[in-house]
Amino acid sequence: DTEVTQTPKHLVMGMTNKKSLKCEQHMGHRAMYWYKQKAKKPPELMFVYSYEKLSINESVPSRFSPECPNSSLLNLHLHALQPEDSALYLCASSAQEKLFFGSGTQLSVL
Amino acid sequence: GEDVEQSLFLSVREGDSSVINCTYTDSSSTYLYWYKQEPGAGLQLLTYIFSNMDMKQDQRLTVLLNKKDKHLSLRIADTQTGDSAIYFCAEIKVRTGGYNKLIFGAGTRLAVHP
Q: Which of A24, A47, B6, B110 could bridge to A34 as Cys pair (CB 3.0-4.6 Å)?
C-alpha cells in the first residue's frame, strides 16, 4: 500500500474564509510534505514535517499554517487567502529514498 | 545552475518508443526520479535510480544515467495512449535521516497519437 489520501479533492473559498486541507497516510512514514503546484508548473515545496516536527518552511506566507497532529496526519490550515493562492495542493510522505504523493486538493480562491 | 532542465513537449506515435531527457544540477545527487502526472491527478512515482547505476529497467521503462554529463533519460517502449501525461524529472537536493528535499524539472508533456 503506497497510498496518501487527501481531502477534499476540490475546494472553493472566499478570501475571508477559514478552511483546512487534510492528508493521511498509514505507511508508517515519518516525513510528510506539503507542495503547491500551479497549472503547467512543477510542484514547489512548502513545508516538511519530520517525526512530527516542522523541519522546513520555505518562506511560506503565514496565511498558510501547517499542523501535524500525529505521525499519520498532516493538515494545512488556510486563512485570508488571495486569488493567486489558487492551485493544486499536494501532500506527500516518504520513507528512505521514496516520496509518494496524494492526488491533491484543487483549491480555488474567489 | 539551480534548475533541473527538461524539454517541454514530446509527440510520439502509438507503438513507438518515447525518450524523455533531463539535465540535473548536482553531481552529488544520490537518487534521481521520474514522476508521471495525469490531468487533475497527483504525481505517481514511476521509477528512480541510484547514482552508482548507469541503467535501470522496469518492464517498458528504461532509465539511463550519465553522471559525467549530469544527464538522465527515460525511455518508454511501445508507447500507449495511456502514457500521455506530464513527466517530471527530480533530483534530491537534501537527504537527511528524516526527510528528502526534491527539486523538480519543469515537466515534459508527452502526447501519444494514433
A: A47
With a CB cutoff of 8 Å and minimum separation 6, the contacts of A40 are B107
Render each residue's pLDDT in chain A as its tens digit; 110 residues.
669 999 999 999 999 999 999 999 999 999 999 999 999 899 999 999 999 999 999 999 999 999 999 999 999 999 999 999 999 999 999 988 899 999 999 999 99
Point out the residue among A40, A51, A106 whose CB comes nearest to the CB of B98: A51
Cβ-defined contact of A42 to B44 (cutoff 8 Å):
no
Q: Which residues of B touch A24 (CB under 8 A)?
A: none
Taking CA–CA distances from A10, the nearest residue in chain B reads B40
Strand ranges of the sheet holding B55-58, from the earlier edge strand across to the other edge: B5-6, B18-23, B71-76, B61-66, B55-58
Enumerate the H helices of chain B as residue ranges: none
Residue B23 in this model has a pLDDT that exceeds 90:
yes
Q: What is the pLDDT of residue B1?
A: 44
CB contact under 8 A, A97 and B104: no
**Res A22: pLDDT:** 98
Instruction: Provide the pLDDT for residue B97.
Output: 66
Taking the CA atoms of residue A84, residue A13, residue A91 and residue B76 in that order, the dihedral angle to the nearest 10 degrees is -70
